[in-house]
Amino acid sequence: MEIRTSWRKIGLVLLVSTTVAGIAAKYEVKDLQIRPANEYGAHLDFQNVVIGAFPCDTELKTLELFDTEKLHEKGILPILLVIENNNIFPIQILEPDVYLVDKDGKQERPIPYMDVLLEINLKKPIIESLNKKQIDKIVKKEMRLDFEHKAFGDKLIGPNGTDHGVVFFRLPADGNLDGYRLYMPEIINFSEREALIFFEFDLVGTQ
User: How many Å separate Cα 133 from the centre of its chain?
Assistant: First the structure.
């Protein structure tokens, strides 16, 4: 009888410990390790603008940016962009104007970070829009704020300025980025309200 009671107590302790451990597990905000744009394996130096890209095509790379394995499990491709403007005028880059081009020439616009958050936190897709309160019940606050802070968004980069951010795309089914490119047709000279010549470069060989 004493033995059974002891095992029940041990089982209860293990159950409580496991539950507490699950509750204690928090999302960790990771600092981005930003290098000069031309030090990334994929980069382009053109029209006094340098763009470096770090595509996270593996789980290990993805975990350098965000503390969740679900991004890779769901087939999401985060790409860190670092942009240096060496002109005497500001430039504007909007997130929807960054395209991923596959080996067949098909263009894909970025997935908004909030859509990414919902996809990796929900078992089933939703068809209706959610307000902030509903989203906060689904997504950990730390995770939401981290994605919000790191997402590329809309950039206005001053003369001799630098900025960075993450854009999200679909990872190819085979995980192979050979032949994939980034295409940016609308980098704007903000002073003149005129677009620079388009930017396009390969993602292969990125470290």
Answer: 23
Could you give the C-alpha distances from 202 to 5, 39, 53, 180, in angstroms and in order? Answer: 65, 15, 9, 6
Does any domain span residue 207? no
Give the distance, in angstroms, between the CA of residue 190 and the centroid of all CA atoms in the same chain. 26
Read off the pTM.
0.85
Q: Identify the CATH number of the domain in which residue 57 sits.
A: 2.60.40
Has residue 77 been placed in a domain?
yes
Residue 8 vs residues 15, 17, 21: alpha-carbon distances, Å:
10, 14, 20
In a structure prediction context, what are the per-residue pLDDT tens digits for the chain, which is 207 residues long? Answer: 444 444 444 343 433 333 333 444 689 999 999 999 999 999 999 999 999 999 999 999 999 999 999 999 999 999 999 999 999 999 999 999 999 999 999 999 999 999 999 999 988 776 667 777 787 788 999 999 999 999 999 999 999 999 999 999 999 999 999 999 999 999 999 999 999 999 999 998 544
How many domains is the chain built from?
1
Long-range Cβ pairs for the range 66-70 (8 Å, 24+): 66/30, 66/143, 66/146, 66/147, 66/150, 67/27, 67/28, 67/29, 67/30, 67/143, 67/146, 68/27, 68/120, 68/143, 70/120, 70/121
The neighbour count for residue 130, using CB atoms within 10 Å, is 14
- CA distance linking residue 183 with residue 194, whole number of Å: 17
